[in-house]
Specification:
By secondary structure, the protein is mainly α. The protein is 61% helix and 11% strand. It has a two-stranded antiparallel sheet with strand order 1-2. It is elongated and about 50 Å long. The protein starts with a helix and ends in a 5-residue tail after the last helix.
Length: 57
């Protein structure tokens, strides 16, 4: 019986962490950072610097 309670507690903690990350847009910010951009927290948008620079060549 203790094992079932522990599994339920773990699932609830993971779900709560996911909701907190979703609430604070951490998934979108992470996507932005993984693409080489900078996340603007004030206006909630991603600035991709690679698109703003002129191509060398």
């Amino acid at each position: 019986m203790k094992r079932t309670h522990r599994k339920v507690l773990i699932v609830l903690v993971i779900a709560a962490l996911g909701l907190v990350a979703w609430h604070f847009d951490l998934f979108r910010a992470g996507d932005c950072l993984s693409q080489g951009g900078r996340w603007n927290w004030a206006n909630d948008f991603c600035r991709l610097d690679s698109l703003a620079r002129p191509a060398a060549g």
